[in-house]
Amino acid sequence: MTAMIPGHDLSISGVSKTFGTFKAVKDVSLDIKGGEFLTMLGPSGSGKTTLLMMIAGFVQPDQGSIHLDKQPITHLPPERRNFGMVFQGYALFPHLSVFDNVAFPLKVRRRPRAEIEEKVKAALDLVKLTTQSERLPRQLSGGQQQRVALARALVFTPHLLLLDEPLSALDKKLRAELQEELKRLHRQVGLSFIYVTHDQDEALSMSDRIVVMSDGRLVEQGTPGELYDRPRTAFVADFLGKSNFVRGKVESHIGDGFVFSGDGVRFVQKARDTKPGIGSNVTVALRPEKLSIVAPGTESDNRLSGVVSEWNYFGSEFRILVETAGCGPISVSLPAWNAGAAPEVGQSLELGWSARAGMEVQEA
Question: Of 30, 71, 135, 324, which residue is the least packed, with the fewest Cβ within 10 Å?
């Protein structure tokens, strides 16, 4: 169990699924490399769980195909796909010990007793539960129960591990600990993890690649850094983290960027790939942490005046909402340790940001 499991490639081509009149998944194509940690991220109803269930074999697509290592598995039943599955609710047998819960997939496969003993011990050692093998699930914490579910999903050496929001029932601190545990397990065993969540922090902290879904479609995909720093759509910019949106019309080109104006305020923005045409409408996404409060007379590519309408303290940062005349409410995140005095509602201030801080995005 401590040895690396060979990675298997999965290819999804044009799959769709409709339940009655509801189109849950719409023509999704996706390739997953062996050994990759891929996260499917999206709001409720985006189609991510339905897509995972089609990969697992519990739901049949209306159209499209699924291949494992170039072999068709679209109509293969779940038990013949050799995929491990971890659910939000653990799905442990309450009357069986930890050992017997983990051993269950091997017993179903009629493996020899000696092999079962060896593999269960290795799986429990992998999730650091060796000393809990004789306990019942009700005698374990939520985090320990999830570790048992992970051991059970890994014990039979699956081709892939599918995880359907496995941490959502845990509290914040325990969830963060299990995120680190999952990353460690992924590095250690080496097989592909396909992870479903609506939690942006989980997706950013754990994934090799994130697939963002909305309304049954694959909207964008990329590494966490690519999607956070260089989103191509307003949906991803606002769903994966938080963004302000500054809209306007292009007035001129300058250097490697362009000047645009909205409601009489001019801004400078570095172009993404090619400069947008003069006179065209643009939307620039701006992360709250990439803005700062600037003193009068301080140089800044962009400046915007406003008044504090509300603020919150989160220990490490202040989150301030500034009402501006030209762009409406703008959210700002400032490190609390060197922010000086707490902001005051009604306080006038000026925001500043670099031409490279924002990112031009497409509206839906």
Answer: 71
